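Handout for the seminar on molecular recognition.
Each group receives one record of this type.
Step one: identify the two inputs.
Step two: read the structure output and locate the region that could contact biotin.
Step three: write two sentences on what you found, then compare them with the reference statements printed after the record.
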Amino acid sequence: MSEQFTVWHHDQIGSTNDEVRRMAQDGAPHGTVVHADEQTAGRGRMAHAWFSPPGNLYLSILLRTGQPAARSAELSFLAALAVADTVEALLPRQMRAMLKWPNDVLLNGAKIAGILLEQVDEAVVIGIGLNVLEAPSNAAYKTTTIVANGGIASVDGARDILLDRIGRHLAVWQADGFVPIREQWLGRSYPIGAAIRVTSGGAPVAGHFAGLAADGALLLDTPKGRQRIVAGDVVPTGG
Ligand code: BTN
C-alpha cells in the first residue's frame, strides 16, 4: 500500500464518508482513510442509499491537496481511474472496466462501484464503494461484482490496490494537473461521437458525446448546438 495513507478500520460503521467528514472537522491530516467491512447508513449520489453489506469495499479518503475547491471535481475523475485500475487488477484476464460520466465504473455495462466526492471546508472526502462479493438486486440500473466476473474475492486486496492507484494518480495530478487525468479518463469512456442521452434536472437531452471540458463538464452535441453539462445521468442510446 502507498505510504501516504493511514487506514482506520471499523467492522461496522454508519457511513465512512460521515466518519471522515467528522475527522476532517477535527483536523485529521491528508491521507486519513476510513475502511469499514459494513455500513449501516451508506450514502450514494443524489441522496440515494448505498447497499453496504459485508463482503464489499467501503472506504473514504481525506485529501488536503492545497488546491482551490474549484478543482475538487477533478478528483472524482482521478478516483474513477483508480477504481477502474483496481477492478482490472482483480479480474482474471484482460477484461476492461469502462468509465461513464461523471464517475461511474462499469463492467459489461453493469455498475461495479460508486464514488461520492464531498467538500469539507478546504478538504475533500472521496468515498468509494466497490462491489467485491455482493451487488444490490433492486437497483434502478444493472449491477455486478468482482466475483461474478471470476475475479479475486479479497476486500483487503482491493483496498490496498485502490490506495496504491489513488496515490499514483494523485502524484500525476499534483505534478501535471488535470490534463493527463482527463486524457486517461477519456481513453476509458465512450468514444467521442457516441450517441448518449443525458438527464440533468429537466427533460432528457439526446445527443453525441463530445468529450470533457477543461473542468470536467460533459460536452454534448445536440441539434441545437453544443451543451455543457455539469451534473446529471448519462445513458448510451446506441443511435
Ligand atoms: C454512487 O451513488 O454511485 C456513489 C456511492 C458511494 C458509496 C461509498 S461507500 C463508502 C463511502 N461511504 C458512503 O456512505 N458512501 C461512499
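Reference statements: Residues 155-176 form the longest helix (22 residues). The longest strand covers residues 110-120.
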